């Protein structure tokens, strides 16, 4: 089965929440790991 790829729309780049988290400065990553409130990388 072929996909419908005949479109003029640009492809959206998916964000990678964990890559964004890994890019944070180490002190901020440590703080977020120890945070008492629930959080998500997104």
Structural summary, described in words:
The structure is a single chain. The protein has 42 residues and is mainly α. Helix content is 33%, strand content 0%. The mean pLDDT is 79.
Helix/strand layout:
Layout: H1 17-22, H2 26-33
* Mean pLDDT across every amino acid position: 79
Distance between the termini: 34 Å
The count of helical stretches stands at: 2
Major sheet details? none
| Computed Rg | 17 Å
Helix content: 25-40%
In N-to-C order, the SSE pattern is HH
Low-confidence parts lasting 5 or more residues at pLDDT below 50?
Answer: none
Principal-axis shape equals elongated
Q: In what range is the share of β-strand residues?
A: under 5%
What is the count of β-strands? Answer: 0
Structural class: mainly alpha
Labels describing this entry:
42 residues, mainly alpha, 2 helices, elongated
Short description:
The protein has 42 residues and is mostly helical. It contains 2 helices and no strands.
